[in-house]
């Protein structure tokens, strides 16, 4: 083996400049490729594919506007001033290049003229035609005309006059009640057609841009144009008291992009300062810095470049692999440099012999340590959560690249830098740590019993840790857009119970989608009558299918209209009205009706915004959504199962955040068990293959198993739940934490005693652990809460793992480990 290492090192010694030049060229090419790097700021993209709860929700959100909508909350002034401001702002917004549609007000007069005028009888449900027929008897007509006379006897009101002339028999009230019942007290109030808060103190404006919220360049330009339109409107009206705040996908996307930039800058600066401080304290000089940082730069750039071949975009979690890799990959350089200094002293400055001895002494340990760390990330790479999977795959690639560098780039750097200034350690040997390890070794059985007892106690508490699959936890910690979104929900919407959702049905045509939607809506209204639902919103009240309209018009055409018209004319004249003023109604009422109302009809234009909320046409047909909210005590999973059973073969999708979060909780539970099993058994298998001793392998992995239990127990005690991001902690603790034990066990074999092993490698273990802790610890300053939590927990876990290496592992390693 030593001859093989010697030949390899001799070859590198002859060509070390070429090796360094090739690595530099590779780094430059990798850096140039980063211009293609794209960031994914869509939280939903982290969810698994292939499960209805996830696929249906993502498809629904993408189809019905939540991902292409900007909300403007306008308040801070009296209602009249708010309306004037919105009236002036809307056309300015619509003139912006980045905006396709603006919905600031519904034209209620035009809606009444169309839906409750020309198409009045299309909106009277079939079951109400019995009441319509009852109103057409001579006695009922006389009574209604008397009511009309009483209405007009009230203080003069032009709107009342118009309503009586347009509808002397009161049919609009029947249709209006049907329409109002479909949306009773569910959405914003429509005072004067404006989307008004229930307290009257705010208005909403809905903006639909013509580009993606996840195009950061477009979103920045959009928000700049909107801000300029708001400022110009305030200047024109000389009203700077009106406040405009933003929510919706574009506001979230802008916040996320800003957070990414801040986090990247923060990681870079803090990691550099942290490593400089650690190196200076450990070595008393910074000569090691170029030795360890240059390979790290090469590794990071190459891994980023390879990510472009694997993924179109990186997300908030996978982007953090660079900070994690910084803390992990630097370990190889520290171990190599520390051992190189030691071997150079022992060999009188012969750099070739020192490099050879360093590779021979650390080669197996490096392969094992890198394999366990990479294995942990490979386990993470099996996750169904794409963001977690990306983190695992990219970091595993980086760790494998580090192994290649250990046997190529590090020896080349040894020849370049190792023959220069000596760069000795501040003190030759960590004697105090060696004494601690010897003391621990002398109390082996007592410590082993304490470890067993501690494991039992911690396990009981660790099993109490909870899972948190709430999507809102994946938002930035300080989110102004989320606060505005919550305020909109509180001020404009009725208080929600179990969380709303939607049943989405597909049809090859608009008519087929509407007919199927009516079946769904009828079932949901039955559920509401049975107490299963709190509310139902459907489009069939505003846009009935052609089949339903035809059935209603057939009932209308069967009415005794001619006789009723004659009776009405007679009653009007007898009670003092001029019948000619009602000629429009009389002529229209007498005519049969066959034409149906279709999507795109001018009469529906005032409610186009509402229709888009329920109906969307795509390349493969049309989808229609009915919105529902379960009654208190009705769980979404149970409701979804019942809906699927009752709707049978109807092609529906059920989309609800509570349903998604329930399914995500199941995924977290399944993956947590998978991660724990694979991380423990996989690392144990690697340790057994490298250390060639079962007892030694179990001894090395035991402190990290205890750390995982301690972390879970602490999380349970403090109320910190396992979420889709910190789910990765157990395999990382196993994969990274055992590195220290591997190096210690192999060095123990080489040096013959635990004291000698600690004197040789104790400083490197400490420094590598501290740099890894720093790599994760600086994530605690992230603006992304799950990532910050993961950083804190990993820093704590790795600190405990370091302590276990010195205070537990010497007692756990078998006595014959030195003779491996």
CATH-level-4 superfamily name of the domain at 1-36 and 287-428: Multidrug efflux transporter AcrB transmembrane domain
Helix and strand composition category: alpha+beta
What CATH architecture label of the domain at 1-36 and 287-428 applies? Up-down Bundle
Number of helices: 30
Total beta strand runs: 11
CATH structural fold name of the domain at 1-36 and 287-428: Multidrug efflux transporter AcrB transmembrane fold
What's the main sheet like? 6 strands, antiparallel
What percentage of residues falls in helices of 4 or more residues? 55-70%
CATH class of the domain at 1-36 and 287-428: Mainly Alpha
Beta content comes to 5-15%
Shape: elongated
Q: Mean pLDDT across all residues, rounded?
A: 83
Segments where pLDDT lies below 50 for 5+ residues? none
What does the radius of gyration come to? 36 Å
N- and C-termini, Cα separation: 17 Å
Question: What labels would you give this structure?
Answer:
single chain, Multidrug efflux transporter AcrB transmembrane fold, 820 residues, 5-stranded antiparallel β-sheet, 6-stranded antiparallel β-sheet, alpha+beta
What does this structure look like?
The chain is an alpha+beta fold. It has a domain at 1-36 and 287-428: Up-down Bundle (Multidrug efflux transporter AcrB transmembrane fold). It is built from 30 helices and eleven strands. Strand 3 (189-191) and strand 4 (194-196) form a beta hairpin. Helix 1 packs across helix 13, helix 12 packs antiparallel against helix 13 and helix 13 (351-380) runs antiparallel to helix 14. The mean pLDDT is 83.
């Amino acid at each position: 083996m030593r001859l093989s290492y010697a030949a390899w090192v001799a070859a590198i010694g002859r060509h070390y400049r070429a090796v360094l030049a090739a690595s530099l060229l590779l780094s430059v090419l990798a850096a140039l490729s980063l211009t293609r790097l794209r960031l994914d700021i869509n939280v939903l993209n982290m969810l698994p594919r292939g499960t209805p709860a996830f696929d249906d929700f993502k498809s629904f959100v993408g189809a019905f506007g939540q991902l292409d909508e900007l909300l403007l909350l306008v308040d801070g002034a009296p209602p009249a001033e708010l309306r004037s401001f919105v009236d002036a702002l809307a056309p300015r917004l619509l003139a912006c290049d980045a905006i396709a549609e603006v919905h600031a007000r519904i034209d209620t007069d035009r809606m009444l003229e169309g839906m409750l005028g020309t198409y009045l009888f299309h909106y009277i449900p079939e079951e109400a035609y019995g009441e319509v027929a009852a109103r057409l008897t001579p006695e009922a007509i006389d009574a209604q005309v008397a009511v009309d006379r009483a209405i007009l006897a009230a203080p003069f009101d032009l709107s009342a006059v118009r309503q009586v002339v347009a509808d002397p028999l009161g049919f609009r009230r029947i249709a209006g009640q049907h329409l109002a019942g479909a949306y009773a007290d569910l959405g914003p109030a429509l005072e004067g057609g404006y989307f008004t808060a229930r307290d009257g103190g705010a208005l909403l404006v809905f903006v639909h841009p013509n580009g993606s919220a996840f195009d950061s360049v477009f979103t920045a330009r959009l928000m700049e144009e909107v801000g300029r339109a708001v400022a110009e409107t305030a200047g024109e009206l000389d009203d700077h008291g009106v406040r405009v705040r933003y929510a919706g996908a574009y506001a979230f996307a802008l916040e996320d992009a800003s957070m990414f930039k801040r986090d990247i800058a923060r990681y870079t600066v803090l990691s550099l300062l942290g490593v400089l401080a650690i190196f200076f304290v450990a070595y008393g000089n910074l000569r090691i810095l170029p030795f360890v940082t240059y390979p790290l730069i090469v590794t990071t750039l190459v891994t980023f470049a390879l990510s472009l071949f694997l993924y179109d975009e990186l997300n908030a979690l996978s982007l953090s692999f660079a900070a994690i890799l910084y803390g992990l990959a630097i370990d190889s350089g520290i171990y190599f440099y520390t051992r190189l200094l030691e071997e150079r002293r022992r060999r009188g400055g012969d750099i070739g012999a020192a490099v050879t001895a360093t590779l021979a002494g650390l080669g197996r340990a490096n392969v094992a340590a890198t394999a366990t760390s990479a294995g942990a990330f490979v386990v993470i790479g099996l996750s169904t959560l794409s963001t977690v999977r990306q983190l695992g795959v990219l970091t595993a690639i980086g760790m494998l690249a580090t192994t290649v560098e250990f046997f190529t780039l590090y020896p080349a750097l040894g020849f370049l830098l190792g023959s220069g200034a000596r760069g000795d350690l501040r003190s030759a040997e960590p004697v105090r740590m060696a004494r601690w390890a010897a003391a621990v070794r002398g109390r082996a059985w007592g410590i082993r019993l304490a470890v067993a007892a501690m494991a039992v106690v911690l396990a009981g508490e660790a099993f109490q840790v909870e899972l948190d699959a709430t999507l809102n936890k994946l938002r930035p910690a300080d989110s102004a857009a989320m606060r505005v979104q919550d305020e909109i929900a509180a001020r404009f919407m009725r208080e929600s119970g179990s969380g709303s959702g939607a049943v989405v049905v597909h049809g090859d045509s608009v008519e087929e989608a509407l007919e199927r939607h009516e079946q769904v809506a009828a079932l949901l209204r039955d559920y509401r009558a049975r107490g299963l639902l709190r509310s139902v919103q459907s489009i069939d009240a505003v846009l009935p299918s052609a089949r339903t309209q035809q059935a209603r018009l057939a009932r209308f055409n069967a009415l005794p209209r001619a006789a009723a018209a004659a009776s009405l004319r007679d009653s009007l004249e007898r009670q003092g009205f001029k019948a000619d003023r009602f000629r429009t109604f009389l002529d229209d009422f007498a005519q049969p009706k066959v034409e149906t109302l279709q999507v795109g009809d001018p009469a529906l234009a005032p409610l186009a915004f509402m229709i888009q909320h329920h109906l969307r046409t795509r390349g493969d047909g049309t989808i229609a959504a009915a919105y529902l909210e379960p009654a208190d005590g009705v769980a979404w999973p149970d409701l979804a199962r019942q809906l699927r059973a009752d709707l049978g073969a109807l092609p529906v999708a059920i989309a609800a955040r509570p349903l998604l979060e329930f399914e995500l909780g199941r995924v977290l539970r399944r993956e947590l068990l998978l991660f724990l099993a694979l991380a423990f058994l996989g690392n144990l298998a690697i340790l057994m293959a490298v250390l060639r001793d079962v007892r030694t392998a179990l001894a090395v992995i035991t402190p990290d198993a205890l750390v995982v239990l301690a972390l879970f127990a602490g999380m349970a005690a403090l109320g910190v739940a396992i979420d889709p991001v910190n789910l990765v902690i157990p395999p990382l603790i196993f994969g990274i934490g055992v590195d220290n034990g591997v190096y210690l066990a192999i060095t123990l074999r080489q040096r013959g005693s635990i004291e000698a092993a600690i004197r040789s490698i104790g400083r490197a273990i400490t420094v590598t652990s501290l740099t890894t802790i720093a790599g994760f610890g600086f994530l605690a300053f992230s603006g992304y809460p799950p990532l910050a939590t993961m950083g804190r927990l990993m820093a704590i876990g790795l600190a405990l793992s370091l302590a276990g290496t010195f205070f537990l592992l010497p007692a756990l390693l078998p006595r014959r480990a030195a003779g491996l």
